[in-house]
Batch of 4 targets.
Target 1
Amino acid sequence: MNTMDQRVLEAIRHLNYDFREFTLSHFITYLSEQRQRPIILHEFPFCEAHALWAKTPEADYILYDQHTHRIHQIHNILHEVGHIVLNHAGRHLSDVLPPELLAHLQTIIREPICGQLRAARWMDTPEEQEAEAFGRLLQKEIVSANRMDRLIGRASSIDELARFAGSLGYHD
């Protein structure tokens, strides 16, 4: 295990979260209560980006691409939670978002904001790599606690595939 993964795993363990209780909403509520600061999830019509963490004086917002598959949305949400848990500094969103997207964002969040934007072209920064490691390692904790079905829901809408996927050990 590399140094970054060790640091991220320590941050996950420091949360003292019981992953046997995991659902995405339970986890977000738990973090909000621990931090005494709301985390608000919101779909957003991104084009080039996957997700965004926006920090305001009153709350943390995680906006995720409404046009992508639910599994990808959840991964992106966990990635953005990583920025929050790992205390990453935000960038001024006016520096990274086009004006029309920033204007749309301001219709949802009516406070001064800074944050992190998740897009493939920025994945080479240390903070993005750490947040990605957070999402990956958090999902390992969820799988280890046999709560993957609480993360992604039913494995398939096709009964035969759902039974097969269920036999792989990712579901209760």
Note: The helical segments are 3-14, 24-35, 70-85, 99-108, 126-144, 148-152, 159-170.
Target 2
Amino acid sequence: MIEPSVALQTALRATLISDPAVTALVQPEHIRTGRPDRFPCVIMSGGSTQYLGRASGGQHLARVNLDCHVWAVEDGADTAKAIGFAVSRAVIALADAQEGFTIDQLDQPRVIWLRDVQPELSYTHGVIEIEAVIRWRD
């Protein structure tokens, strides 16, 4: 098992690029980590891991937080919110079987839509917070 936040991020990207509702709005190569330089895009960042300890059968537990940043230019908020909704729906499928770990709990506690700091550029930026409790064996 790789570091838990990286494992969740990898699984999330695989889920998003295989979801037709998401890829109808965002090209798969624009779903990644890094900086928003091609639009629209989904940028995964802010991974953090809180180790929760050991469980029965030699398993480990961790709470993982990850942010999905949605960026869009065209049609402003309408496009960004459509992408955000497609991403949120796809995240639900993330709870299904993953290679190397199991997701015991999966939440999307908040979606935040931020005001454009440069209105002349017409960017819309949203942040989808994802929180998961994952379990794995050594």
Note: DSSP finds three helices and five strands in the chain.
Target 3
Amino acid sequence: LEEGIKVTALPGASACITALVMSGQKTRRFSFEAFLTRDKKERAEVLKEMAKDTRTMVVYEAPHHLSATLKELNEALGDRSVTVCREITKKFEEARKTSLAQAAAFYETETPRGEFVLVIEGKDRKEIRKEEIASWEELSVEEHMALYENRGMDRKEAMKAVAKDRGISKREVYAMLLQPDQSGSH
């Protein structure tokens, strides 16, 4: 394309799409990570991004790196559902739906053979919301209110924002501001 040459494509075998279809994981939205980089710093950044991704993720891996990669994915993403596909379209084709922890344990004792595609469940949106709420609960209601008021919100707007962040009603926020508990936080 850069040289002005017309480029076209013919549909053909695609391990990414084939593995996604046979995985049993959600297929509506997905990301294709291909082979994870070997550069440690960049790899850590990619894994951090993947940990927050709500889409199904497709990763390629070589047999000699599979065991370590499964352990690393389990540590970075948590014990999510994964389908370990190998030898797609070949005689020993296999799609094993399991968890990252179970897959990592399995390949500690089994020698990986063939080409692998990992299809990993995305992060659950409900879990993300629980984490957001938990992070706000580390602040007292007064501190949370001050955060918004210091940004220029009036008291009513700040109470509405605090209620939304914490997954509670404005009335509950108001009551918490009026009724301090024994420890002095709300």
Note: The two ends are 61 Å apart (CA to CA).
Target 4
Amino acid sequence: MSTHHPLPGHPDPSSPWVFGTRELGRRPGAMKPYTRSIPAPAEPERLGLDTIGVPAGSPVELAVRLESVTEGIYVSGTVHAALEGECARCLDPVTDEADVELGELFVYPDTATDETTEADELPRVIDDYVDVEQTVRDALVLTLPLAPLCREDCPGLCPDCGEKWADLAPDHGHETLDPRWAALRERLSAE
């Protein structure tokens, strides 16, 4: 059984993130919809941030439309994925869902847009394929909260004992003594 190894920088046609554009041709207005459920990648390619992201292996639901335009292939649609993380205040587990809109132009080679933009400004159509993984990753990560919360009014943790404020008595507190008075306290407690 032969395996296909794409050239570096070229999309792998066997990847679920890669879509073929050959049947659209370069006829502006030609369009084709796709729906795919793709397992989320694991570390280190995880979709998300350190605090919240798409769990490895969970489905990333794509509903996209590839449309041929004068300068390339316009990819639009939605992404839906479950999220898991931890509360930035109390460290409890957090679950949520993300629904993200996509809209990205993949530029044909040898067009005015290709010649007037840097390679990292817009993605390219390479060998009649578009790879939407980075587009999905960028759109998804930009919508994630930097500090996810288990609830909006989460009180967090007590800075002295590390217990959750929500689990502590209302009169919970810790005696704090100015370190400058520590020697006097020790002397008085010794007598």
Note: The radius of gyration is 26 Å.
